[in-house]
Every structure is written in C-alpha cells, then in structure tokens.
Amino acid sequence: MENKRPVRCNENENVALYLWTKRQEMADRGEISDSFHLGKKAKALRRYVPQKNSTAYALLIILYRGIVKGATFMKKQELRDDTEASELSLKSIRLVSHSVSSTI
C-alpha cells in the first residue's frame, strides 16, 4: 500500500510520488538507510523542497519530464537547454557558473 505524503504544490504530486517510490525501493534493497538518525543529537528533519521558480525547481521538473519520456540520462548541455526553454525558473541557468581559482 502506498504511503501518501502531503505535497505543497498539486502540480508536483507525480514528481513527489515518483521520488518517494524510488526512495522506498532503494531502502528495501538496502542501498540507503531507512533511518534518518544522524547521530546522538538529531535535528528536526525537514524535507528539501526547492523554491518554486528557482533553478533547482526547474532542473528537478525537467529531469522528471525526461524520466516520464523514457530518457535514461541527459547530457549537461541538453539539461541546460531544456531548462532554459521551459521558463520554469525566473533566473537564467546560464548565469550560474562555478569557477575554481587556484593560487600558485
């Protein structure tokens, strides 16, 4: 029997159900711990929920759409292009760049 979890945005109910099902499958196979306890003093756990219209939100939705279409992987550039074209994010994904500077 499925464990129905509350979803803040009804549009994402399928995404949440898919992610929850995958997590349960991984826990059943022993790939991840079913326990959330991290040590002696456990903090109150909160699920990560990306803010609507953020880049993380857009990436998550695009990845889910790819899974629904049957894609087993996406190249980085394809993911960026699809995210930009979807207009799910208020900010451009192209503006986010991670450069590493080294000092010699």
UniProtKB/TrEMBL annotation:
It is found in: Nucleus. It comes from the Eukaryota. Its EC number is 3.1.22.-. Its cofactor is Mg(2+). Keywords: DNA damage, DNA recombination, DNA repair, Endonuclease, Hydrolase, Magnesium, Metal-binding, Nuclease, Nucleus. GO terms for biological process: DNA catabolic process; double-strand break repair via break-induced replication; mitotic intra-S DNA damage checkpoint signaling; resolution of meiotic recombination intermediates. GO terms for cellular component: Holliday junction resolvase complex; nucleus. It is an enzyme of class 3 (hydrolase). One of its GO terms (molecular function) is metal ion binding. PANTHER family: CLASS II CROSSOVER JUNCTION ENDONUCLEASE MUS81 (PTHR13451), CROSSOVER JUNCTION ENDONUCLEASE MUS81 (PTHR13451:SF0). Interacts with EME1 to form a DNA structure-specific endonuclease with substrate preference for branched DNA structures with a 5'-end at the branch nick. Typical substrates include 3'-flap structures, D-loops, replication forks and nicked Holliday junctions. May be required in mitosis for the processing of stalled or collapsed replication fork intermediates. May be required in meiosis for the repair of meiosis-specific double strand breaks subsequent to single-end invasion (SEI). Belongs to the XPF family. This is Crossover junction endonuclease MUS81.
